Amino acid sequence: MCTGYGRSAFLQFQFKPFTYSNQYKVFLVYSYKIISDCNTVIEAGEKEPTDDPTRKQLLGECYFLRAFCHFNLVRLFALPYTQNKSAAGIVLRTSTSDPAQKARSSVEDVYAQVIADALKAEDLMNQPRGVEYASKEAAEALLSRAYLYMADDKTPQIMPQKL
Predict the structure, then answer these.
(1) Overall number of domains in the chain
(2) What residue numbers bound the domain in which 73 lies?
C-alpha cells in the first residue's frame, strides 16, 4: 500500500509490497464467521427433517452462503484450480464440531464441497424472497461460475440455459 507521493511512494511499494493487509484479515474472519453460523443452522435444521418450505428455503440459503464463502476464500487464498488442483487450498469448515486446528484442504476438495453445497442449495430453495436473499438462481449462477473456474468441459451444457 502506498502512502506517499512521487518516487518515495514508488520505492515503498517496490521494496515493501503488501501481501496481507488488514482488509484480507477482515474478509477472512467474516467469511469464517458466516460459515460457522451457517453450519450451526444447517446442523440444527437437519436434526428434524420436515417438508416445511420456509425451513427448506432457510437451509438452502445457508448451504448457498457456505458455498459462496468457501468459493471466494479459495479464489483469494489458494492457487487457481486449473493451475494446480491438488495444491493446498483453505481450511474447509463443514461442521460445528470441526477441530480448531485443522489442515488445509486441497483446492479440488474445496471446489467439490462448493459444488455439493450449491447443488443442495439449488434443490432446497424454491421460494422467491427478494433480491436481498439467496435464491435458486443465485445457486445456479454460483455453480456455473465454479464450473467455469474449474474449466470443466464435462459439465452438462444446461447450466447457462437455466440462467
Answers:
(1) 1
(2) 21-162
Distance CA 108, CA 144 (A): 16
Domain-located, residue 2: no
- 81 in any annotated domain: yes
| CA–CA distance, 146 with 110 (Å, rounded to integer) | 11
Alpha helices in the chain (DSSP H): 6-15, 22-45, 53-77, 107-124, 136-150, 159-162
- Encode 138-151: b = buried (16+ Cβ within 10 Å), e = exposed: bbbebbbbbbebbe
In this structure, what C-alpha cell is assigned to residue 163? 440462467
| CA–CA dist 82, 149 (Å, integer) | 7
Domain assignment present for 13? no
Q: How many residues does the chain have?
A: 163
pLDDT tens for the chain, 163 residues long, are: 444 444 444 444 444 444 556 778 888 899 999 999 999 999 999 998 888 999 999 999 999 999 999 999 999 999 999 999 999 999 999 999 989 899 999 999 999 999 999 999 999 998 888 888 899 999 999 998 999 999 876 665 555 555 5
> For residue 61, how many other CB atoms are within 10 A of its CB?
22
